[in-house]
Structure of DUF1330 domain-containing protein:
Amino acid sequence: MNLIEITLQALDAAERAIPPGQPLYMLNLLRYRAHARYEDGFEAVPCSGREAFNERYRPAFRRLAAGKPLVRMFSVPVLASLVGSPGERWDEAAINEYGDFATFRSIVDTETYRREVAPHRHAALEDFRLFALAKAM
């Protein structure tokens, strides 16, 4: 199983757990590959994982999300881990705000995302975590 894939099962479970119409934050933990690793048949100039994510994935995601209620709050380097599994390492943490879960799903649960956007994320990342967080309690 690919641990960086956003599966239909995960989307369905999140949709059941998150109240409809509720704004939410998505926390991304990212660990980049030294060299992007694209699937056979996907044409891309060689680059680092960080370059694939920042220069290919993010712009492609933004194009697909254009006009939707989405705000990139911040994306910053992870400096140190104070609590976590031994050897666990993250390069970057990012938080994006979505108008609701349906907005997020309308972006990632499309053939265009799977064909044109996700391959850059898969190539770029060695490891990835994605958490849906309530905007307010």
In short: The mean pLDDT is 92. The two ends are 34 Å apart (CA to CA). Helices lie at 8-17, 49-65, 101-108, 111-124.
